[in-house]
Every structure is written in structure tokens, then in C-alpha cells.
Amino acid sequence: MSLSSLGKAEDVKEQNEVSGSKGEANFVWRCKSCKRESTATIKNPPQAYTHASPPKQQNIIEFDCRGLEFTEFKSDGEWQAKGLESPTKFSGIDLQEEEWFDYDEKAGEEVSIKDLKWEIRRA
């Protein structure tokens, strides 16, 4: 792999009001049955995955969850990456298939993202 970093293409800035509170959260969910609200707030903003050899596990984002727990991560949306040995920037990367291949003309070699594994764990 000749990519130095991988990150989500769009910023996560949306804030939603928490009813009955002066607070805000990035994600607010209300149960239709009991009307209880649960929230998730981004504690540390998204960080780009940085190339390492051999590849190592890295934290990408950290949430403060109240009344809910995330169980699965789906890499929907567009991602971006930067060449390791060239200044080439790649955008519009679709990782739904958990792999991506392209060609870096400035470096003269194929670039790829493969064997992705996402893990959600408590901090």
C-alpha cells in the first residue's frame, strides 16, 4: 500500500438539541415507546489513519455515548487518501466493499486499500 493516510471526506459538525436540556449532541435518538432520549457526542474529532508497516490498529474517532451503544461501523460515504511516495490525493473512495484499488500516475504504481477491519470498543 502506498497511501499515507485515509480519512472521511466530509466533516462531522452537525449538532442537535437535547430536549429538556441546554446541551447539544451530534446524534440524538428518541425511543418511540418510552420517549427516552439517548445521545452520542463526538469526544475527539475524526483522525486520519496513518500508514504503518506492519499495519497497526489505530483509533479513528471517539464518542461519548449516553443511553446507547454503537455495535457496528459501516464505511458508507466517500473517503479520501493521500499518496505515501507522491503528493497525489485520491477522493471519492468507496469502501463499502472493504477494499479499493487505483493507480498513482505520479508514483507510477498501483495503490490499494484492502483487508479492512473495523472494531467498536469501549474506551
Automatic annotation (TrEMBL):
Q: Name one Pfam family in it.
A: CXXC_Zn-b_euk
Output one GO MF annotation: zinc ion binding
Q: Could you confirm whether the keyword Metal-binding appears in this record?
A: yes
Segments of this protein annotated with the region Disordered: 1-22
Q: Which UniProt keywords are present, listed alphabetically? A: Metal-binding, Zinc
Matching entries from PANTHER family are given as: CXXC MOTIF CONTAINING ZINC BINDING PROTEIN (PTHR12857:SF0)
> What family does the database annotate?
Belongs to the UPF0587 family.
Listed name of the protein: Uncharacterized protein
Q: What is the lineage of its organism?
A: Eukaryota, Fungi, Dikarya, Ascomycota, Pezizomycotina
